[in-house]
Write a structure and sequence with these properties.
Keywords: Membrane, Transmembrane, Transmembrane helix. It is found in: Membrane. One of its GO terms (cellular component) is membrane. Belongs to the drug/metabolite transporter (DMT) superfamily. Plant drug/metabolite exporter (P-DME) (TC 2.A.7.4) family. The protein is an all-alpha fold. The protein has one domain. The chain is built from 15 helices and two strands. Strands 1-2 form a two-stranded parallel sheet. The longest helix has 27 residues.
Length: about 375
C-alpha cells in the first residue's frame, strides 16, 4: 500500500510538471547548456564528428524502433520531398557539428548567447529567399542582435585590449562556428517549411539522423580530419548523456511551446544563457564578464524585436511560406513568429524534427525548433504535422 501511494504521488507530480509550460520550459532550458557542458567535458579528445555520429546512431535506432511500432508510412518519406528531406538532414548535421565546435572552444555562456541569433537569421533568410515581410521592427531587431554579438565576442579590432578577452585562434574559430550553426539552422527551418505537413515528424527526424550518419561515418573511417578515438568509460557515459539530454531537452522544449504563449516562451529561452554562464563558472572556472552580460541582453532585445514585431497587428504578421489555416497561434501571434522564436533554442539544436502538429487549442508549434535538435517528435508517435 505504501509503494502504491508513493507511485501514485510520483505519477501525480509528473502530471503537474508535464502540464506546466513554465516547469517543462525551465527544465528544457537547463538541459541544453548541460548537454553543452558534457561536450566540453570531453575536452577535445573525442572528435566532434564522432560525437555527432554517436548521438545520431542512438537516435536513428530509436527512430526506426518507434517507426516500426507506430507503423508510420512511408517511413522514409514521399519521393517528391526527397530533396527537401536531404537538405534538411544535411543542414541539421552541419548545424549540430558547428554548434558542438563552438561549445568546445567558447565559454558556455558566450556560445549560448550567440546561439540566440537563430530566429533572427531565420527571419532574414525567409525575407531573402521566400519574400516574407521583415518590416522596420524586424530590420531593427537584426541590427540590434548583431550589435549584441559584437559586444559579446569583443573582437580586438573594435575593443582592443579593453575587451577583457584574449582573442586567439580558438575564440575566433568558436565564434565563426557559432554563427555558422545559426546559418545552417535557417536552412533546416526553410526546408521544413517546404516539406510542411506532408511528412510525419518521425520521417523528418529520421532524415536528419540518416544524413548525420552518412556524413560522419566516411570521414571517421578515413581518419579525417582526425582519427576516431575509443572512448573511455567516462567518455562513453558523457556521449550517452549528450544524446539523452539533447533528446529530453528538445522534448520538453516542444511541450513548453505547446503550453505557453510565444512571447513567454521566447523570454524564457534566455535562461539558457544564464545556465550556460553558471555551469561554465562552476565546472570550468570561466569568468563572467560585464560585456558578456550586456551583449547577451542586447541579443535578447534584438530577438524579441524580430520575433514579436507582429503582435497587435504590426507589419510582418503573415506567413507567405505556410499557407495552411489558421494563420495564427492561440496567443494571436502569426505562425511565422512562433517558428522563428522556437529557433532560439540552443544546441541545436538544433531542434523538434519539424513541421507543426495540431494541438487542442490550435496553437502552432514552431518549425524552427528543428534547428536546435531533432528528436522530440519521436515520442509523438509519428503524427502528421498540423
Amino acid at each position: 500500500m505504501g509503494l502504491a501511494a508513493v507511485r501514485d504521488a510520483a505519477y501525480h507530480a509528473q502530471g503537474l510538471v508535464w502540464s506546466s509550460g513554465v516547469a517543462v520550459g525551465a527544465v528544457a532550458c537547463f538541459m541544453f547548456p548541460f548537454s553543452g557542458a558534457c561536450v566540453k567535458l570531453l575536452r577535445g579528445r573525442i572528435p566532434i564528428i564522432e560525437i555527432c555520429l554517436a548521438r545520431s546512431a542512438l537516435a536513428w535506432a530509436c527512430s526506426l524502433t518507434v517507426g516500426a511500432a507506430t507503423r508510420v508510412r512511408p517511413l522514409w518519406g514521399h519521393p517528391r520531398n526527397a530533396g527537401y528531406l536531404i537538405l534538411r538532414g544535411v543542414c541539421g548535421s552541419f548545424s549540430v557539428a558547428t554548434n558542438y565546435t563552438a561549445v568546445s572552444l567558447l565559454p558556455l555562456g558566450d556560445a549560448a548567447g550567440i546561439n540566440m541569433l537563430k530566429p533572427c537569421v531565420v527571419a532574414l533568410a525567409a525575407w531573402t529567399l521566400l519574400g516574407e515581410p521583415l518590416g522596420p521592427a524586424g530590420a531593427a531587431g537584426l541590427a540590434v542582435s548583431l550589435a549584441g554579438v559584437t559586444v559579446l565576442v569583443r573582437p580586438p579590432f573594435l575593443f582592443g585590449d579593453a575587451g577583457g578577452t584574449e582573442w586567439g585562434a580558438a575564440r575566433a574559430t568558436g565564434t565563426a562556428a557559432a554563427i555558422a550553426s545559426c546559418v545552417f539552422s535557417a536552412g533546416v527551418a526553410l526546408s521544413i517549411r517546404r516539406i510542411g505537413k506532408s511528412e510525419a515528424a518521425l520521417t523528418v527526424a529520421l532524415a536528419f539522423h540518416s544524413c548525420t550518419l552518412a556524413l560522419s561515418a566516411p570521414p571517421l573511417l578515413l581518419s579525417w580530419p582526425t582519427p576516431a578515438v575509443m572512448p573511455t568509460g567516462r567518455e562513453a557515459a558523457l556521449l550517452v548523456a549528450i544524446a539523452l539530454t539533447s533528446f529530453a531537452g528538445q522534448l520538453l522544449l516542444t511541450r513548453s511551446f505547446q503550453l505557453m504563449e510565444a512571447a513567454k516562451a521566447s523570454a524564457m529561452s534566455f535562461t539558457t544563457v544564464i545556465y550556460g554562464h553558471i555551469l561554465g563558472t562552476l565546472i570550468f572556472g570561466e569568468e563572467l564578464t560585464l560585456t558578456s552580460i550586456i551583449g547577451s541582453m542586447i541579443i535578447l532585445g534584438g530577438v524579441l524585436l524580430t520575433t514579436m514585431r507582429g503582435k497587435g497587428g504590426g507589419s510582418g504578421g503573415s506567413s507567405a511560406a505556410v499557407p495552411a489555416a489558421p494563420g495564427t497561434g492561440a496567443d494571436g501571434l502569426p505562425r511565422r513568429q512562433h517558428e522563428a522564436i522556437a529557433a532560439a533554442a540552443p544546441g541545436g539544436g538544433a531542434a523538434g524534427a519539424g513541421g507543426r502538429q495540431s494541438e487542442p487549442d490550435g496553437a502552432a508549434v514552431g518549425d524552427d525548433r528543428a534547428a536546435a535538435d531533432e528528436e522530440a517528435p519521436l515520442l509523438l508517435k509519428g503524427r502528421q504535422q498540423e
